[in-house]
Amino acid sequence: AEEPSLSEENEAKDKEPSAKGESEKSILRGETDFQDAFETLAKFRKSEKSKNNGEVSYYQNKDKMILDGESFVSNLNRDLDEAKKLFTRLTQAESPKDQFFIKQEIIRYQKSLRKIILGSVRLCEKETCSLPEYTLDILNMDVLKDILEKVSMENWSNKDDFHSFDEFTKKIKNAYYERITPWAAYLKSVIEELGIE
Questions:
Q1: How far apart are CA 149 and CA 109, in angstroms?
Q2: Closest by CA position to 55, among listed 133, 106, 122, 1
Q3: Beta bridge partners of 129
Q4: Of 34, 111, 120, 171, which is least surrounded by CB within 10 A?
Q5: For residue range 20-53, what is the model confidence (pLDDT) as tens digits?
Q6: Which residues are registered as beta bridge partners of 56?
């Protein structure tokens, strides 16, 4: 049998699909899908802010509304992270006066989060509003009400109560972000659910 010539080998290599090239195309396609879906949804994103309920983000197409679950979880993260930083300061504060003011600040974040959760529950109680179906087994009305009950009943200036709430929500946050990754599929499902053409 004759050995293939160098030019024949190079020709064969040129015809073989490059695994690296295909994966780069796939990554670019994924980024484009995400970008397109994100930009489409951005046009339908709204927020409702009231004195007693904080700011709640949602998507709306005609009379169909879907709570922005990612914004909800992000707000949860933000307020918990800020409270954690304050707990670090609390352990370093020596004067009772400083400790008192830091505890008041921690409770302020708890109240802020309670308003957002309450606003989300009230919005989802409307007949035309729902949570995204894509994450419904993780973030649903029962879960929202459980979080609301815990944030309303517990006292975050007590480190045990705060830690209990943090552990409770950590499981929800982790499951939520695991579900919506990759984001493109999640965003597309919200677009479909809203009936956006």
A1: 16
A2: 122
A3: 65
A4: 171
A5: 444 444 444 455 687 888 899 999 999 988 665 5
A6: 48
CA angle 168, 126, 139 (to 5 degrees): 25
Cα(167)–Cα(151) distance, integer angstroms: 13
Helices (H) and strands (E) in the chain, counts: 7, 4
Q: Three-class SS string for 1-66?
A: CCCCCHHHHHHHHHHCCCHHHHHHHHHHHHHHHHHHHHHHHHCCEEEEEECCCEEEEEEEECCEEE
| Domain edges within the chain | 6-194
Report DSSP state, residue 133: G
Is residue 197 classed as helix, strand or coil in its secondary structure? Answer: coil
Residues 134 and 189 sit within 8 Å (Cβ to Cβ): yes
Phi, psi of 10 (to 5 degrees): -65, -40
